Amino acid sequence: MVLPAGRFRDPRSTEYDFISSVIVRCPGCAKAARVVPAPEVSDPGGRMLFRPRRLVCRGCGLSRVWDGRNVTLSRGTARPAADPYFGMPLWLQVETRHGWLWAYNLEHLDLIRRFVQASLRERTPGYDTGQKMTLVARLPAWIKRAKNRDEVSVLPARRAVSGSTWWRIGRGTGRRPR
Fold first, then answer.
1. pLDDT tens across 94-123, in order?
2. 13-18, long-range: CB within 8 Å, 24+ apart, which pairs?
3. Per the CB 3.0–4.6 Å rule, which of 26, 43, 80, 174 could disulfide with 33?
């Protein structure tokens, strides 16, 4: 269903829907790297959250494997966010005057962008009978406020561009925008 411009309907997504591929800062070269499910895993019945993961960087060729049992999801906006598996800083995050704005991947970033830019925000039909605390419902109040809409909607666009061109979209001074 195509929604009119300026309208957002909560798809009832959770953080778990976005951690299959996480974009992080590579510990080797500080460029964008990905945390993805390990390709040799062929257990379709296992839980996606605890499947082995691989951190892969195209910039420096770094590759690490995670097969642990501890998963730590980022909570809140008071400090920088990290990926749930390796604990590496997320690539898609920026500090604002209100707190940290972050996303696991481009799909997560797009969901936040569409929510922030919408002037009409709707819950799905059947909201009262299903899961109430969706990812959108858990967003901090400062992201949801209309008075912050312009400030918050500009930030994700700046950070989504890869590292080498990111600073040019900022102030044009060679410094990364805050």
1. 888 888 888 899 988 888 888 888 888 777
2. 13/111, 13/134, 13/135, 13/136, 14/131, 14/134, 14/135, 15/73, 15/104, 15/135, 16/48, 16/49, 17/135, 18/103, 18/104, 18/105, 18/107, 18/108, 18/111, 18/135
3. 26
Relative to beta strand 120-122, strand 7-9 is parallel
Paired sense of beta strands 53-56 and 32-37, if any: antiparallel
pLDDT at 146 over 80: yes
Which token pair is 65?
């494997």
Residue 28, both tokens: 């080797």
86 touches 55 (CB < 8 A): yes
Examine the pLDDT at 58 and tell me if it is beyond 80.
yes
Here the tokens at position 16 are: 């778990």
Cα distance between residue 119 and residue 165, in whole Å:
30
Nearest to 170 by CA among 160, 152, 158, 154: 158
**pLDDT for res 174:** 36
Mean pLDDT over 122-150 rounds to 75
State both tokens at 118: 């919408």
Among 107, 60, 54, CA closest to 83: 54
Entry pTM:
0.76
